[in-house]
Write a structure and sequence with these properties.
Helix content is 34%, strand content 30%. It is α+β, with helices and mostly antiparallel strands and 74 residues long.
């Protein structure tokens, strides 16, 4: 049985801007060039994005995710 992805993040071609949100919100965006990464949990999403946060990339939340936002800086 395949794991259903609930979250995603998009990294632009420069690797300096990341857009985070629910799968639906990310896939509805006109993202242009870059890469979408899919996650099955908010914890997996956090682990994927943390590297970009610590490298001082621009992180934009497309969906309301208070727990994600609070845990990103830890």
């Amino acid at each position: 049985m395949a794991v259903e992805n609930k979250f995603a993040y998009f990294v632009d071609r420069s690797g300096r801007q990341v857009t985070v949100g629910t799968l639906r919100d990310i896939e509805q965006m006109d993202l242009g060039r870059g890469q979408i990464y899919y996650c099955d949990s908010e914890q997996a999403l956090l682990q994927g994005v943390k590297e970009y946060y610590h490298n001082e990339c621009i992180i934009t939340l497309r969906s309301p995710m208070n727990d994600f936002k609070e845990n990103l800086s830890l």
